[in-house]
């Protein structure tokens, strides 16, 4: 019946836990000629979704599905943005995999490994969460394989908000993304610590400047910041010392943030040598949880917070 449905005035559509075929979903979407917002939460039966819409502004999806409801479900494996001239937000919400490191390194069938291909999205502004659950990200001729840059031949100058999730704070990985998105203004990073050091001692080459750090990056949020090991301190310090127009850097931590800890962070991060004279540094105890909303930045925190701020 889905194939015969038409919603000529529908602007927002959410499908949650729906079982349907690819043909049925594509037919249903073609019957929504003015659709602006689409959120797919754990749909089954659709392995590949292709989007070609002149009106769609926001796409959100979550692959994870309760395997006890449907045995051996066909989950979304590929999302292709063929032509979306109005698309501003592409939001990926599979974040539950992160606490289990083994499930990241050894795919067990419960977590969808998704390929995302963006062919035409000329005004895309918000992109994330990009994580190891995305096996391949193709942006024009630029390719990221498992979060690692294979080719960096296309720059997307429209993206202003970028959200990344990785195993450990890997500076090389993040810098590659910043080169691909040179006009990012807000950068959200969630890391899940590995025992192995990520060797975040990269020095900034002034002869090969990163446009984002020089001209655009105004806000950085690091979720799961520890501040006790050289790798995460070195990662954060790179932005402190090199982001020239930074206005705010937020460290979300589980530590107590007492006076002694804060003083130690001030020294280790070299805040006296910050590249942006007006930058504020905030240490908070909370959890970064994105919501699928239509506000300007869906990753902006609006709930209660316990925070300490330094200049």
Q: Which helices and strands appear, and what pairs or packs with what?
A:
Elements: E1 12-16, H1 22-30, E2 37-41, E3 48-52, E4 58-62, E5 78-83, E6 89-92, H2 101-105, E7 114-118, E8 126-130, E9 134-139, E10 142-145, E11 148-151, E12 161-167, H3 171-180, E13 186-192, H4 211-216, E14 219-223, H5 230-242, E15 248-252, H6 259-268, E16 280-285, E17 306-310
Please give a quick description of this structure:
With 311 residues, the chain is of the alpha/beta class. The chain has 6 helices and 17 strands.
Q: Which terms would index this structure?
A:
elongated, 6-stranded mixed sheet, alpha/beta, 11-stranded mixed sheet, 311 residues, 6 helices, single chain, 2 domains
Q: Could you characterize what this model shows?
A:
With 311 residues, the chain is α/β, with parallel strands linked by helices. It has two domains: 11-154, no CATH class; 155-311, no CATH class. 17% of the residues lie in helices and 29% in strands. The chain has an eleven-stranded mixed beta sheet, covered by helices on one side. Helix 5 (230-242) links the parallel strand 14 (219-223) and strand 15 (248-252). The longest helix has 13 residues, at 230-242. Residues 96-110 have low confidence and may be disordered.
